[in-house]
Amino acid sequence: MRPLSATDSDLLVALHEGAFEQPLWQSFLAKLMALTGACDAILIFRPVDQGEIVELRAVAGPEHHLQQLLPGGRRTMREGRVYALQELLDWDDPSQRSYYENVLVPGRMGEGRAVRIEEPSGISAWLSVVGDRGFGAADGALLGRLVPHIRAALRNFIALERERYRSSLTSDAFGRLNFGWMTLDAASRIVDMTPNIEPLFQRTGLLRRGRYDRLMPSSPGVDRELSAIVRGFAQDGDQRPRAINLSRDPWMDMLVTPAQHTSIAAGSAPVAVVYLSGDRWSRSDRCDQLVDLFGLLPSEARLAWALAQGVSIGQAAASLGLTIETARNYSKKIYAKTGASGQAALVRIVLTSVLAIA
Questions:
Q1: CA pair distance 93, 77, nearest whole angstrom
Q2: 80 C-beta neighbours (distance < 10 Å), count
Q3: pLDDT above 90: percentage of residues in the chain
Q4: Of 132, 165, 206, 284, which residue is 20 to 30 A from 320 by alpha carbon distance?
Q5: Domains, the chain, ordered by start
Q6: Is the separation of the CB atoms in 218 and 242 below 8 Å?
Q7: Which residue stretches of the chain are H helix?
C-alpha cells in the first residue's frame, strides 16, 4: 500500500494530536471531510471495557446514530477493507430502509465509505465519510492508507487513558494520605510535582511557588537549609537523603533525596526529589476525631494522640500538664476503649484507623 501523499500527510499530524483535543480528533475529522468532499466524517469506537460507544463527528448537529444502523455490518466488516455505506445496511430491515430513505438521504448522508480498525488491546473503531455524492476509488484508498495510523493512534490513546486513570487514583491516594512529591533543579526551581502539592501549598502556607517557580519555604532557615542540600545534590548525587521538619502542629515533614531518574519530558534536569508527608489536621482536630471514633473523653483523647506520636508516657504527661499517676489512669481507660494492649498497639490502631485518610 502506497504511503500518504504530501497533500494529505497533515492528516497524520492531526490524527496523532487528536488524542489531546476536546472533542477528540476534531481537527483530523475536519481535515478528512475537506479532503474527500464529504458532508461529514465520523469516527466511532467502542472502549475496551465495552462501555457506551463513542461517536465523534466533524460536523456538529443532531446525532444520526450511524452505529445503530449497522449492527450486522459491524460484525461482518473485514478489518482494513473499505466498504460502501450501501453494502453495510440491512435492506431487509424496514426500519433501516426507512431511516436511510427518510433521514440519511435528506440529511445529505446517503453515500459513504467506511472502514473497520481493530486495535490489539480490544478497541474496535469505524471510520466513515458520508455525503450526498458518490465517493470514488481515491476516497476509499485514502481510508485504507489511514488504517495503520489510526490503529497506532488508538494504541497511544489507550495507553494515555490508562496512565491518566492510574495517575488520578495515585493522586487521590496521595491526597488522602497528605503525601506528595516534587522534583527540583539545581536552583531549587520546581520541575514537576503531583497535583495535590498545589492545594497543600495553599492549605498550610509552609511552602509556596516563588518567582521563576522556585520552591520557597516560609521559614528563612528552612529555605537556606533546602537550598544548600539541593546545591550539594547537584554537585554530588551520591549524598544521603536529608529530612527536614516543617511544622509540629499540624505535623509536616520533608524528605529531600538525590534524583535518580530523569525524564525527557522535563524542561530542565531535576537534581532532587522532595517528598512531603504530614497531617492536614491540627492536634485539637485529631483529638476531636479520637473522641468520635473511640468514645474517649477529651482529656483522654489528648493523651492518646500524644502517645500515638511515640513519646513516653512521662513526656506526654509533662506536655499536657498531667501527673504521671493521672496519665497512667487515663492510659488504662484509653487502652480499654481502643482495644490496645499497650502503647505500641495504640500507635498502630490510631495511625492505621480511618484517621490516616481523614
A1: 18
A2: 15
A3: 46
A4: 206
A5: 10-165 (3.30.450.80), 177-278 (3.30.450.20), 283-357 (1.10.10.10)
A6: no
A7: 10-17, 26-36, 66-69, 71-76, 85-88, 94-99, 137-176, 197-204, 220-235, 283-294, 298-308, 313-320, 324-338, 343-351
Cα 175 from Cα 179, distance rounded (Å): 6
Give me 341's grid cell. 494492649
Residue 25's region, left for phi above 0, alpha for psi from -120 to 50, else beta, is left
Which residue has cell 511515640? 310
Q: Determine if the peptide bond prior to 250 is cis (ω within 30°).
A: yes
Place of cell 537556606: 224
Integer Cα distance of 55 and 74 in angstroms: 14
Q: Which amino acid, one-letter code, is at 215?
A: L
Closest residue by Cα to residue 99 from 114, 113, 109: 109
Residues whose CB falls within 8 Å of the CB of residue 13, separated by 6 or more in sequence, listed in order: none
For the stretch 185-228, pLDDT in tens is: 999 999 999 888 888 888 888 999 999 999 999 999 999 999 99
Q: Mean pLDDT over residues 252-277, rounded?
A: 81
- What pTM was computed for the model? 0.60
- Tell me the C-alpha to C-alpha distance, in Å, between residue 321 and each of 300, 302, 305: 13, 11, 15
